[in-house]
Amino acid sequence: MEYVEARRAAIEDRIAETVGAVEPAELGEELEHVVLAGGKRVRPTLTVLVCEAAGGDVWETPAASTARQQVALSEDGEDALDFAVGVELVHNASLVVDDIIDQSEVRRGTPSAWAEFDYGPAIVASNGLLGEAFALFSREPRAMECVTDALVDLGEGEAIELVDRPETEAEYMELARRKTGALFRAAAELGAVAADADGRTVETLGEYAERVGVAFQIRDDVLDATADSEALGKPAGIDEEMDRPSIVRVTDQSPEELNDLAVAESDRALEALDSLNLPEGEARDYLEYLAEFVVSRER
Fold first, then answer.
1. For every residue of 9-35, which 3-state class applies, written as one string?
2. d(Cα 110, Cα 55) in Å, to the nearest integer?
3. Per its UniProt record, what PANTHER family does this chain match (predicted)?
């Protein structure tokens, strides 16, 4: 989708600009190693497109423009891009910690932060990513609240995974909500805040995204257990190898039944989206597409 790729390109440029300005230079290089190694950029793209879907005035697109000639018109656009970058930095900070916990030496085809720089610098890099993110959120109290709530959930999710591991479907769903859904929720809420949406719209778009995140995580668990590494595009069977909680491991349901569980979350996400009667357009279309894609993807 050219429309979405244009937004991703603008996000990518702003990410590179943000981490490229970090001082001292050694810290900046570590952040670049973590953040510029790739990634789907689902969360920041969600932030920008939710802003547009919620009525934010973000882009001017000249008829002859390319994806990288998008021009932010307004304060909405600047806020949306900054919030998008911020949520991606928070996500990457959490991945640095995940790789330390899991002793994973590779992330996105490159050495993970701890494998490249050792443990101390990796922790400093994670903290640096959070610091840069909060600098982007700091001018908007509602944005700070969204992200702070997400980080509380994320931290509690990490603790649950390590010391109070889920043993039932309900316990796992709560873990998935905290570890994955919470940051999806924050990404959407930030977009709505950038659009200066009302409280109900912010909350409902957050619910939509949280359910998309949970559906994403369930599907991820199923693919890890059932797909081969070549088709998946990354090593399969990691949850079993790392003795990590997954929906497959805490239930006796078949992959098909678990996919149905993911679809149910996706359907509830779409119901939340439909309840807002947002204007028709490509941004709203993408939000519908995302909810459907996360439960049908093969990698």
1. HHHHHHHHHHHHCCCCHHHHHHHHHHH
2. 39
3. GERANYLGERANYL PYROPHOSPHATE SYNTHASE, SHORT CHAIN ISOPRENYL DIPHOSPHATE SYNTHASE
Q: pLDDT band at 164, cuts 50/70/90? A: confident
Alpha helices in the chain (DSSP H): 2-20, 25-35, 42-53, 75-102, 113-117, 119-137, 141-163, 169-176, 182-194, 199-226, 229-232, 238-241, 247-250, 255-274, 282-293
Both tokens of 254, joined, read 């078949």
Contact 31, 125 (CB under 8 A): yes
The reported pTM is 0.92
Domains and CATH numbers, the chain: 2-293 (1.10.600.10)
Supply the DSSP symbol for 278: P
Beta partners for 60? 71
Mean residue pLDDT across the chain: 90
Handedness of CA 104, 105, 110, 112 (dihedral sign): positive
